[in-house]
Description:
Elements: H1 2-29, H2 33-86, E1 94-99, H3 107-117, E2 121-128, H4 139-145, H5 151-168, H6 174-180, E3 184-188, E4 196-200, H7 211-224, E5 228-232, H8 242-247, E6 251-253, H9 259-271, E7 276-277, H10 290-304
Parallel strand pairs: 1-2, 1-4, 4-5, 5-6, 6-7
Antiparallel strand pairs: 2-3
Helix pairs in contact: 1-2, 2-9, 5-7, 9-10
Amino acid sequence: MLIDLRYHISSLAAIFLALGIGIVIGGALLGGDGVVREQQRIISGLEQEFELLRTERKHLQNMLKRQEVEAQVFRQFHKTVYPILIKGSLKDRRIAVFRTNESIEKHEKTVCTVLKEAGAEVVSSVVFTSWAGVKFDNPKLVELLSSSQPEQAWSTHVLTALIEGLAVGKAGQILPLLHEVKILEYDGSPEKAIDSIVLVGGSNIKDACRTDLIDLPLSTVARDLGLTVIGVEPLNIQYSYIPAYSGAGLTTVDNIDTIPGRVALVYTLTTRKRGNFGVKETAQSLLPSVDDVLLRTSAVGDERG
């Protein structure tokens, strides 16, 4: 809005310049009281318009200041209330986090932090690499998986073995091997069984999108094993994975880099109910039903009691 105002003022300045030139030329050519009166009328009108612009600009500046104060209050409110909203919600849960491409950085770390703040244990954090230079007939992989396949079938075979291992707490052999052959990097303790998986998707590079190769086969295997799977991505992303995730029946959160998105992730894991949450066109609502969250929290409390 301020940019439009500056443009308007610049345009009026140009008009004033043109008017000044016109006054000089007109006065020289025509002269007379009538010309002078017309010039004075035009100048008076322009002065009034400039005064209106100055008043509008002052109003806009005051409005922006008020909005900035309100935004600061909301930010402080979110920071204060956020820990209260999620504290202890995921106690006794064991979760693995996967980032499925290299074009978005560090968002899996954000997810891991959120899960830990809610009381969950992040058993493993896995980041798939570009797989550049990987030999799909690697002897160690063939020996472990008893398979030497083309990339599509091979990747599904690898993902199946990986998720099956994580589901029962026996991924201690396959994770180091996949790291050794430069398929992925990981942190954590793969000797503990998980109950849920969070897929961190979205891409800023079209060629880095591997939903068909990694995300969807991985989620299919995980859900067949009874694991909860949620797909998330940051708010500002060039190539969204949410349509593919929701099309496959996954629960999704499309703004994981915001506080509402983090709360939505915790609540979806708490309730285990499906839905698409966030602010994009694919979202059904910003957050899961608070009633569902309260009921689930109450039931868990009763079980522990």
